[in-house]
Design brief:
It is a single chain. The protein is an alpha/beta fold. The chain has 2 domains: 64 residues, Rossmann fold, CATH 3.40.50.720; 30 residues. 46% of the residues lie in helices and 12% in strands. The protein contains 3 helices and 3 strands, in the order βαβαβα. The chain has a 3-stranded parallel beta sheet with strand order 1-2-3, with no helix packed on it. Strand 2, helix 2 and strand 3 form a beta-alpha-beta unit. The chain is elongated and about 70 Å long. The protein starts with 5 loop residues before the first strand and ends with a helix.
Amino acid sequence: MKRTAILINAARGGIVNEDDLGRALQEKLIWGAGLDCHEQEPPSPEKYGNLWENLNVVSTPHIGAATADTQLITATAAIDNLNAYLTSLRSGMLS
């Protein structure tokens, strides 16, 4: 990665080797990091304090998908899936 790179992990904790990330930031091998997930969830100051002290790190407790739109879409999908399941059960009972 270039020294101007910003690593972003919004997928799953453990994908990024956090010890290596801390070292890369300390040695200025990359510019910064944005983390919405961590190996330890929820993240704690005891484990991530050194990483969070870096002004080029933005860290959130896996809330990237917690927008009103995302929550509505997720709830609607759950209802649609439940309806489809119940409809299939009912169809099976009528056959």
